[in-house]
Amino acid sequence: MKKILVWAVLLGFSLNVFTPNTAHAAELEESTFIYNLDEGGRQEFSGVTEDGEEILVVVEEVFPEQNTRNSFSLFSVANGNYRISGKKIGQWEASYYVTVSGDRLTRAYAPVTSETTGSFTRTSLALLSNKKASYELVWKYGLLSTTSYLNAILGSSSISITY
Q: Where is the DUF5626 domain (predicted)?
């Protein structure tokens, strides 16, 4: 009986020690970049994740000849389409588009991913509300599995990108 108990304890310990490193949404600390809608155009940001990995984020306005601007108002944010892209150096790149219309996010669409190393096991783009879009990226390399987000949150004169 003691041998079974010892083996059970050892097995439980080894499963905890040798489990792949998986980040969960509740454990993630989000960092934020602010895209200024009044400035518009292409704005680039860079940062370092809590794991010490470099991340690059680019937000760019898709110009009027390439999108469907609905209406212009002096009292609303810059209506139009914006491409949001992120890159973890040496791992992956991802992007998607959002449409801003009448102080609301009305659409999140055209998600794209590419891996430098490893592979994506799951990706999910969702328009969570009229102020927030979320692109969840689950990337795996060997036993390492991480979950990253490229979230877009619409403010009064900005789009905040959290990762």
A: 37-160
